[in-house]
Amino acid sequence: MNMTPDLKHALVTGATGFTGGQLARTLRANGHTVRALVRRVDAPAAQALEALGISLVEGDVADAAAVDRAVAGTSHVFHIAAVYRSANHPDAYYRAVNRDSVSHIIEAARRHGVDRIVHCSTCGVHGDVAEIPATETTAFNPGDIYQRSKLEGEMIAQQAIGEGVPISIVRPTGIYGPGDTRFLKLFKTIENRTFRMFGRGDIAYHMSYVDDLVRGFILCGTHPDAVGETFLIGSDSYTTLNGLVDEIADVLDVPPVRGHIPIAPLLAAATLCEIGCKPFGIDPPLHRRRVAFFTKARAFSIEKAQRMLGYTPQVGLREGLERTAAWYRAEGYLRPAKKSLAA
Ligand SMILES: NC(=O)c1ccc[n+]([C@@H]2O[C@H](COP(=O)([O-])OP(=O)(O)OC[C@H]3O[C@@H](n4cnc5c(N)ncnc54)[C@H](OP(=O)(O)O)[C@@H]3O)[C@@H](O)[C@H]2O)c1
C-alpha cells in the first residue's frame, strides 16, 4: 500500500476504460476510498470495479446533474473519461463528452469544495509536431475533432485555473500496457506478418506505459507544485515508428517488417470508409485518425514533470512491450510464446 493521506476520497471518471480503470484500481489498492462515475452500473467493467470496493455512481459525464452527484463528498477528481476510441460521432457529441464535461466537473468541484482536479487531456492537442521534442509551450495544432474537443476542454480547465480552481492538467502520450486493445491490431498484424508500413516510418512516436502514467496522475493529484500546471507525461524516451515496429517484432519473435507503401491510397480508403459508414451510424473500421498514426510526428519532453514533480518513468519500452504481449497472449489475443510452446 502506498497511501497519500491528503487523498481522502477520489472520484475517477472513465474507470470502465483502460487508463481510468488502471488508475481507479491502483488508488484502491493503495488504500484510498474510490468512487467511479460509470455509464451503466451493470456493465461488466463496472461490476469488476465494485467487486474491488470501488463505489459506483451511474451517469454520463455530459450530464451536469450526474456529475454533481458523483463529485459530492470527494476530495480529488480524476477526469479521465473521453470519447476517443470510436469514430464518426457528430462533432457535438465529442464536444459534449470531451469539452462540456470539463465545465460540469469544475462547477461541481467548486460547489463541493474539492481539493484537487486532475484533468486528463492529450499530447494530441499539439497535433503533428513540427520540431521535436515538443514541450508544454509548443503551439497547439489539433488535427481532428477528437483533438479539438480535448483542447477545448483543456481551455475550460485553463480558464478555471486562472480563477483559482486547483486543477492540474495531464497530456499523456500514446498509452499502452496490459488491458489496452488499441495497440492490439499492431501486435497482431506484426505477428501474422500482414503489417505494412505506410509511409517511410521514420516519424517519431512516443509511448506512455500505463502504470507510469498512473503514477503521474497521482503525483499531479497530490504534489503541491502540480496545482495550476500542465504536464506532458510519457516514457523517458521516444522512438520512431520503424523502431517501435522492429521492437514489437523482436518481442514477438517474428522477422522484422520490411518495405514501405505510399500513404495516399490508405488516406483515400480511410476517407471513403468514413463517408460510407456515416449514414449508417457504423464505427468505420478504417478512419483518418488511424492513418494519422503513420504520418504525425509525436515526440515530447517530459522534463517539466521530472523537474517539478520528480516524475520518473519506471518501465522502459522493451519491458512495457513484453508485458503487453504477455497480457495479449494470456487473453488469447496472440499465439503463445514460442518458448512456452517448446516447454
Ligand atoms: N489511449 C491513448 O493513447 C491516449 C493518449 C492520450 C490521451 N488519452 C486520453 O486518456 C484518457 C483515457 O483514454 P483511454 O484510452 O484509457 O480511454 P478508453 O479506454 O476509451 O476509456 C474511455 C472511458 O471513458 C468513458 N466514457 C466515454 N464517454 C463517456 C460518457 N459520455 N460518460 C461517462 N463516461 C464516458 C468510457 O466508458 P464506457 O466504458 O461506458 O465506454 C470509458 O470508461 C482519455 O481522456 C483520452 O482522451 C488517451
UniProtKB/TrEMBL annotation:
Entry GO MF terms: aldehyde dehydrogenase (NAD+) activity
UniProt cross-references to InterPro entries, sorted A to Z: Epimerase_deHydtase, NAD(P)-bd_dom_sf, NAD(P)-dependent_oxidoreduct
Lineage top rank: taxon: Bacteria
GO CC aspect terms: cytoplasm
Ranges of residues in domain NAD-dependent epimerase/dehydratase: 10-234
Protein's recorded name: NAD-dependent epimerase/dehydratase domain-containing protein
Gene3D superfamilies hit by this protein: NAD(P)-binding Rossmann-like Domain
SUPFAM superfamilies cross-referenced by the UniProt entry: NAD(P)-binding Rossmann-fold domains
